[in-house]
Amino acid sequence: MPESTLNYLAAMPERPYYYLVDPPPDTPVRNTKGDRRTLPIHDARALTPPPTLDREGFALVHHATAVEDLYDPTAIHRVYYKEMETLVANATGATRVTALDFNVRCQTRAARGERGAQEPVRLVHNDYTERSGPARVRDLMGDEAEAFLRKPSTHRPERANPGLP
Q1: Cα–Cα distance, 100 to 120 (Å, whole number)
Q2: Distance in angstroms (rounded) separating the CA atoms of residues 65 and 76
Q3: Which of 27, 42, 86, 145 sits a CA distance of 20 to 30 A from 61?
Q4: Band of pLDDT at residue 164, cut at 50, 70 and 90
Q5: Is residue 159 over pLDDT 80?
Q6: What are phi and psi of 151, to 5 degrees?
Q7: How confident is the model at residue 127 (pLDDT cuts 50, 70, 90)?
Q8: pLDDT, tens only, 41-99
């Protein structure tokens, strides 16, 4: 079984920080320490039973995009966003899905200074916290945000796993 080193954030007594821009004078760029762990990497496509949103928090679905160049921001906004909104709605039973944004993560393109390209994130992480998630909804959904945040989902459809090739 293949293994890989995953980089976690080590436990620390203070709140961690990492500046993506120049920090204030006499402030280090980060106060974090890494916790590197070598772990086996499993092919989730081979799991039996297959992962589900309700049990594992993710599901695998097959999708073939019509976008020819996934580095083209116009194609991403015009075509891929709609594809992903449809895919998520079909997989979850959601009546409304809104694609938020995307990041181009490519070490080679970032090193060349290509506009919009960023280095890969090398730490195990999630993108939103209990505080930043609702703040993002408010930023994007305007007047509708509070209704979305206030109303828990009551619709829990049976989710078919469309499988993978």
Answers
A1: 19
A2: 10
A3: 145
A4: very low
A5: no
A6: -95, 110
A7: confident
A8: 999 999 999 999 989 989 999 999 999 999 999 999 999 999 999 999 999 998 899 99
Residue 126: the pLDDT is: 87
Residue boundaries of the structural domains of the chain: 61-165
SS (H, E, C) 4-29: EEEEEECCCCCCCCECCCCCCCCCCC
| CA–CA gap between residue 161 and residue 56 (Å, rounded) | 13
* Residue 81 tokens, joined: 């966003």
pLDDT, average across residues 137-151: 90
pLDDT tens per residue, range 30-49? 999 999 999 999 999 999 99
Question: How far apart, in whole angstroms, are the C-alpha atoms of residue 140 and residue 153?
Answer: 19
Query: Over the range 11-30, which residues count as b (16 or more CB within 10 Å of their CB) and which as e?
Result: eeeeeeeeeeeeeeeeeeee
Backbone φ, ψ for residue 137 (5° rounding): -60, -45
Name residue, tokens 């500046």.
19
Q: What's the whole-model pTM score?
A: 0.76
> Hey, what are 110's tokens?
């970032």
Q: Distances in Å between the alpha carbon of 36 and those of 5, 9, 30, 71?
A: 6, 8, 17, 31
Give CA–CA dist 30/18, Å, rounded. 4
